[in-house]
Amino acid sequence: MNLTDRVAVITGGAGGIGAALARRFAAEGAAAVVVADLDAAGARAVAEGVGPVAHAAQLDVTAEEQVRALVADTERRYGRIDLFCANAGVATEAGLDATDADWDRAWRVNVLAHVHSTRAVLPGMLARGQGYLLHTCSAAGVLTAVGDAPYTATKHAAVGLAEWLAITYRDQGIRVSALCPQGVDTPMLAEGLAAGHLGARVIAASGAVLHPDQVADAVIAGLAEERFLILPHPEVANYARRRAEDPDGWQAGLRKLTRRLNP
């Protein structure tokens, strides 16, 4: 997909990767960029920074009726949605001590929100015979988020859903990509490091932490090639191969790293 003259919607657009995508899509010549976020003021600030092609919307991605309303409003305003970026996500930094409420929130934001947006946007895309779904799933969806059981489980589910959609709808003109970055300089990572969370420290110790703009660069390249897995950190592909070829050795390495960081 080339972004020129496209209409894109981005959830979780008030900061981090979502804000970087909004800026980059506009720079690539998008006709319209809808910046949606629970943080209405943050979404407005990003949209104002992007310029006249951007429109801000407040959105709770866990409320399906709000997602449907956003899709309907965007289609009325611009006639179509070419690219829907289900980018909102949450972490818990908890293991088995995560409460049922933690699990429920992670499931609703990291997985069900992707279901809600796809249900809402897919009919219009299928009617036109084309459309693109970009789901932010995290490297945790193909590896493991040490220190965060709900995040790991739900991001694996998000990758599984994206793959199912790609298999089911590609022959009907729908393209699907799963964006799986590792460490990115976002508020989520900064807060985790400040709190001393194990998962954040593992990410910081494991290699490069990218700027959100670098992730946006990878997204543009991945969309152009219509790749299913978009990996801003190329090493994630190597990690995934090692994990598949030698799961016991892979787990032993992570345990060793965990012991070093959290004796």
Automatic annotation (TrEMBL):
Residues 6-182 form the Ketoreductase domain. It is an enzyme of class 1 (oxidoreductase). Its EC number is 1.-.-.-. The keyword Oxidoreductase applies. The keyword Nuclease does not apply. InterPro entries: KR_dom, NAD(P)-bd_dom_sf, Sc_DH/Rdtase_CS, SDR_fam. Keywords: Oxidoreductase. One of its GO terms (molecular function) is oxidoreductase activity. Belongs to the short-chain dehydrogenases/reductases (SDR) family. This is SDR family oxidoreductase.
